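--- STAGE predict ---
source: upstream dedup step, 1 unique chain passed
mode: sequence only
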Amino acid sequence: MDLHSPLKKFFGFNKFKGLQEQVVKSIVDGNNTFVIMPTGGGKSLCYQLPALMQEGTAIVVSPLIALMKNQVDAIRGISENNGVAHVLNSSLNKTEITQVKHDISTGITKLLYVAPESLVKEEYVAFLKTQKISFVAIDEAHCISEWGHDFRPEYRNLKHIIKAIDDVPVICLTATATEKVQEDILKTLGITDANRFKASFNRANLFYEVRPKTKDVEKDIIRFVKQRVGKSGIIYCLSRKKVEEISQVLQVNGLNAVPYHAGLDAKTRVKHQDMFLMENCDIVVATIAFGMGIDKPDVRFVIHHDIPKSLESYYQETGRAGRDDGEGYCLAFYAYKDIEKLEKFMASKPVAEQEIGHALLQEVVGYAETSMNRRKYLLHYFGEDFDEINGDGADMDDNSRNPKKKHEAKEDVVKLLTTIKATLQKYKSKEVVNTIVGKENALLTSHKTHLQPFFGAGKEKSAGYWMALIRQVLVVNYIKKEIEQYGVIKLTKKGAAYMENPTSFLMTEDHVYSEENDNTIITNAKSAGGATDENLVKLLKDLRKKVATKQGVPPFAVFQDPSLDDMALKYPISLEELATVHGVGEGKAKKFGKDFVKLITGYVNENDVLRPDDLIVKSTGTNSGLKLFVIQNTDKKLPLEDIAKSKGLELQELIKEMEAIIFSGTKLDINYALDDFLDEDQQEEIHEYFMEAETDSIQEALDEFDGDYDEEELRLMRIKFINEVAN
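--- STAGE serialize ---
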């Protein structure tokens, strides 16, 4: 089938880019299709072209209203009929909805953009069932996995909704997904048979540089930007306050810059975005709220004033430079203190989420501190090999232009691999390093590692040296990080062969980012969000008591203490932000949140509080699979023991998982299972106890009932209680 003439007819292009042609063919042939294509690789054309070519309407599920609007405008621009593309979301009035339905029914609409929330609505599903649907495309598909821990039911139900509308092919597209996330997406959507297309992540025209962040960072930025007057650029900062500060400094220095962050009202945000797109300003200084769906081809530089929380974010944000294949300069300022600050914000997260967050941060540290080819390091993270001598863009980074000293490290590599093997490949990098340098901790002692002859075998060198060596050995594939138990280091076949027959290994000496030239950005811990704000906690507790009394529930059923502590760390001033607070979730935010958000907003304004902005570490979906499994199987009313067994868990561990789900505001009905444990009167007695209790502490309940009930029974009853009373 000739795809070139429709390509020319609709989009005016003579040839496809990268994998586009194969992807379009897969969709036109009616196959489920999974596409990973880097930012700027031309993802949207992959589903727009088949939709325009085929009979019927394609449904495009997208999480962002701004993104949909951009795309609808773009498609309308290539057709004489405005009805060719429509958005169906909460922003439409009755008349507009009638128009959309009319255009779909008469076959005018080829692309219908919907938010997942809208696709759940009965009336829309009923209407779409009666129409000819060509296929369903899910854009930004990594959201299915990454947002897994809030469990927006509309995401986990996409599979069922699509089936309810019509049995049509599904195409998922994402700009970034590690293997773990890919598997998660395919499983959740039930399309493990999909044709998979993964484009190269190498953007050869981008130049990568990392500089130490000194107290003169603002001067460095101004100097850099002044050498590029009239060119478009984005400067990313982590907090709104920084965004405001830097944009003002640039303006004072005669540079044409505007701020962009979630704290500005919608009108200002749209105005600033349009100024940037229309070239009425050169630079946007922004939090990560900016950029999703910014299709500006000629962004010439992206600066990170603060290093991001994951290499995925970094890759996506730098990927907004040079989309027209022209110049794109990616400059990041790095100070280890920034990493420590990010770690502080994770302290209140559930342990599993903290682990993922720390693992992601370590990858960022590795990238920033490495002295090997940065492109090779970055591509290795996405599972792609890169030839740093002849590869496309091989010398496009600071390390390749100014190579660092190298030294022979053959013996150290052998020492490292031997230690990993001798400790039975069950440790993460930190523990491997502790073993080599001989630093005891509880985990090593529990495995009796500290008594082994190899303990401390490399103590003449620093932990930093061994960490750097691990990173370099990882990139050449002598060891790998386990996907299932994220971060545990295993030997590869190549590594085992190297131990048998070691050859020369030139280790590049890492950059030394010294403390002297480091700057402490914010000295006041409270303003940095480093410590919980005790005054605010007190006010929140008083409010919680009032709300609880009004609703007739105990205070802990409104929000638990860790949630209040997290609010006093993050200062959420909207329901969306409140939903990201530890143990809150969307359901709870809606039910109880209004008064809390109002109180916090007032407090922030009165006390000039610096709010940590956008510091939400998303889970990479490691645990979302288990949560989804638990929710689905309790929906099916399977015995709890069976659910636990099928995942190799003890009942205690399953209960812990259910508590995490229920405390975040997601409903979980386990009434059917409780009857196996307790009769009606017993259940009523425990329910009444929780209703009157000051706290939901299990220990206090055990003391109160003095042996009448065991811990598991009380914990299960607490889940039922929170489900009915609080969620």
